[in-house]
Amino acid sequence: LKRSLYALFSQFGQIIDLVAMKTMKMRGQAFVVFKELTAATNALRQLQGFPFYNKPMRIQYAKTDSEVISKMKGTFGDKEKKKEKKKKAQEAAANATKKPAAALATPAQTPAVQVPDNPPNHILFLNNLPEETNEMMLSMLFNQFPGFKEVRLVPGKHDIAFVEFESDTQAGVAKDALQGFRITATCAMKITYAKK
């Protein structure tokens, strides 16, 4: 679940924390903490109602700052304050039914990845994928783009995959948007047009 959430949300900006607990009270909820408020806002707008594990996501901002954010701001208090915050966070979580995004505004830009390429094609070739990549993770990442048809993994080769679109143009849009996307913190995905 955490991997899928990370894969889905990290395209909007740097994620500094992801909290998803299995307790009955917290079930069906997760907190995605972005480094920047703009990234959280973008994710909230783009993924509202997005089908995640066959259910539409309901996203809202967390009612309080996460511990990571309050530590960064220097407002993180002692244990008594921590307990109060935890209580408030749990109450907020009980009210927030699905996946709120908490964030903080601090500018950070990631440089664009330059990858040598083939002539435009409706099929994209992905490489430098982490070992745990599966068809569902890639489908969730690419089906937000118009014209998405299917993901094909290569048996025995975990680090490569093909993604098919209806047209070269639609494939190009997805390619540009997700170039260098990190499915995990260490693996930046490389996308080229497949050879014709």
From TrEMBL:
Keywords: Ribonucleoprotein, RNA-binding. One of its GO terms (cellular component) is ribonucleoprotein complex. It comes from the Eukaryota. Residues 77-103 are annotated as: Disordered. Residues 1-64, 122-196 form the RRM domain. Coiled coil: none annotated. InterPro entries: Nucleotide-bd_a/b_plait_sf, RBD_domain_sf, RRM_dom. Residues 91-103 have a biased composition (Low complexity). Transmembrane segments: none annotated. Signal peptide: none annotated. This is U2 small nuclear ribonucleoprotein B. It comes from Xenoophorus captivus. The lineage of its organism: Eukaryota, Metazoa, Chordata, Craniata, Vertebrata.
